[in-house]
Amino acid sequence: MTVSRPVVTRFAPSPTGYLHIGGARTALFNWLYARGRGGKFLLRIEDTDRARSTPEATEAILQGMRWLGLDWDGEPVSQFAGMDRHAEIARAMLENGSAYKCFSTADEIAAFREQAKAEGRSTLFLSPWRDADPASLPDRPHAIRLKAPRDGETVVRDAVQGDVTFGNAQLDDMVLLRSDGTPTYMLAVVVDDHDMGVTHVIRGDDHLTNAARQVQIYLAMGWDIPVFAHIPLIHGPDGKKLSKRHGAVGLHEYAAMGYPAAAMRNYLARLGWSHGDDELFDDAQARAWFDLNGIGKAPARLDFKKLEHVSGWHIARMEDAELLKEIAGFRAATGAPPLSEHQIARLRPVLDALKAKAKTLPALLDQAHFALIDRPIAVEEKAAAGLDIVSRGILKELTAAVQNASWERDELEAAAKQIGESHGLGLGKVAAPLRAALAGRSSTPSVFDMMLALGRDETLARLQDQAG
Ligand code: GLU
């Protein structure tokens, strides 16, 4: 097979109301393959099921793609909008003799099957119209069927599965255009992929049998067959086909759990594809490394522990601007309001300290609680226990001591130390009431990090609120 054309891949979801994690991985593979080769990545919405294809259902998919950071080229293509073109190709196939008009009614087909079953024959429908004399055809509604080869084999040359052979005896004369004039899915997919110039079809292996039928249409039209790569579906941690009982199956659920999109790209790329032993990588590496050879034949299993690990790695090495963007995406996914400028200004100075520890964005924001709240600070019960009369006194002394301090770590630390020593207390004991006053909690970032992030005025105000 020679494919010298520039690479064109596509993601062709049917709108189901959300972007499935398996669909997201399919999209990612197509995106990586195209982007790593200077090719195009197209998006086609397979919206021929009119009942399910609401604008909201389509938007949910686009939203998932945007969140995951998979940009597509051009406008999304609507499969439904191509109906006339699909019908035109069905007629072209009539013309070239690779298809025929079939006047059998649904009742006749059902009766055929019934009888075949009773006689123990194959129930694949054999239309009596396949070889009818074109001059003697009735003038009534009819389907257009592919005149599929009866003998021999149809081979799907698959970059993942190898050559997969289907006996033509097992493939019936599929309907291309229904008697109501609507094209079938099988026809629409081939016509669209051809018209969009798709060179590589990377999708779930639940479409492998469809590929055999699609190959027959390509051959009937004399069109170039794209490279197929059918990837094994994702399984749950127990090795069974992924379903809702395993937990989250929608990409939006992962967004809402606070895994950064960058980590999801890394994690999903590894779900079924590998590059040696590399587990942790960035987009540039993924683009450079991604190849169809690296896709495995065995289904990959979801592993939440691994996802946490990947997530933590990405958070730790993220630039502030990217991290803030991820946080914005996380908050949007949970319906939380965006962080205010004011909150972001307080958050920035502690980001580096927090990055290293947090595995997810909510874990990071939880540590950043002090920066996101305003006075009056509600003090949690556990932290309040540390605010006894002695501690309140210490806070008062500290307030006075740092009032005119230059707002630098060394000086703040020295002041706290000194006051602790004068009470015969270590820094840890002084830190407890400080945490309570500044964050209302007992688990916080370093107290000096908090003081520096909050600035002098806000720190003094919080201390004064709790000082005795
Ligand atoms: N619309 C199909 C699906 O969502 C994908 C078809 C294809 O990739 O060819 O499963």
Automatic annotation (TrEMBL):
Q: What is its main location?
A: cytoplasm
Enumerate the spans annotated as Glutamyl/glutaminyl-tRNA synthetase class Ib catalytic domain: 7-308
List the ranges annotated as motif 'HIGH' region: 13-23
Q: Which Pfam families match?
A: Anticodon_2, tRNA-synt_1c
> Which reaction does this enzyme catalyse, per its entry?
tRNA(Glu) + L-glutamate + ATP = L-glutamyl-tRNA(Glu) + AMP + diphosphate
Q: Which UniProt keywords apply?
A: Aminoacyl-tRNA synthetase, ATP-binding, Cytoplasm, Ligase, Nucleotide-binding, Protein biosynthesis
EC number in record = 6.1.1.17
The segment(s) forming the Aminoacyl-tRNA synthetase class I anticodon-binding domain are 340-465
Q: Specify which residues bind ATP according to the UniProt entry for this protein.
A: 244
GO biological process entries:
glutamyl-tRNA aminoacylation
Per the record, the similarity remark reads: Belongs to the class-I aminoacyl-tRNA synthetase family. Glutamate--tRNA ligase type 1 subfamily.
How it assembles, according to the record, is: Monomer.
This molecule's function is given as: Catalyzes the attachment of glutamate to tRNA(Glu) in a two-step reaction: glutamate is first activated by ATP to form Glu-AMP and then transferred to the acceptor end of tRNA(Glu).
List the PANTHER family hit by this protein, alphabetically: GLUTAMATE--TRNA LIGASE, GLUTAMATE--TRNA LIGASE, MITOCHONDRIAL-RELATED
Protein name, entry field: Glutamate--tRNA ligase
* Gene (name only): gltX
